[in-house]
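Fold Annotation — chain and its backbone
Encoding — discrete vocabulary of local shapes
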Amino acid sequence: MAEPRTDPFWSGQGEELEDLSRLHDAQPWTSEGMPLSRSAFTTFAAAEAGLLRGPRVSDEAAVEELHHAGLVERSGRLTEDGRSTHTLLRSADRRIRVESAAAGVPGTYEAARVRGSVVVWATDSPQTWAGTEPVGRDRLASATTGTLMWLPTMHLAADLAAWLQVGPAWPMAISPNRFPRELVAQRTDDATAPPPFGADEHLREIWGQPWFTWTLTSDTEHRVAGVHAGRHGHLRLTDESDEVVLSPLPAEPLFAILVGISLL
């Protein structure tokens, strides 16, 4: 029988805290679908009356990419696969969007749901870049390329959880927990940014973890934002005037949010 997991930070404080979460470990996110650039996806989503042509379609490279992907004919008319995918995108009864940032690399996860089916377009998971120092060409490639995927609705929450790396962790309250918004942005882009003056030991531990930030929104005006801080999991990021507040967001409540926003 496997020993309960403990966290090295808490062990160093004399606290052998076990991971008692009922969730499995965070799963690696896999882009199992059709490679499709951001510009091609945007062009495809803007099609009207089953056609991609006319003055609104100015990105010829995007149209060519969509043709090679089997979504658009040479004439600009959508193929059978293109029409079914486009219909789901345009008639969705739930839309979810996540924007992320990790080491200066922006990420996007877009989902359109109709009853039992979901179409997703997503870039790399922000976990790919958290704690790294990507070069400019890698940042550009990650921000402008993605994958178009079809999922059963029941799999959407788990896919979102993998993209956001939701799993067992050791969250902690920090002090101070209120910061200027630009300080959080600076730390997200630069892992060497120093913690704020007066940071307690917990905040310094959190500050030193590989970070990415994320904001989840839906067409129901639901909005949740957070920071993923390595093995300490997620902290909720709440806007208050010109500042932000960081508070622990354990894995189970966060996963419940993803389930609710995906299925209800």
User: Anything to note?
Assistant: Residues 32-91 form one domain. The mean pLDDT is 88. The longest strand covers residues 105-114.
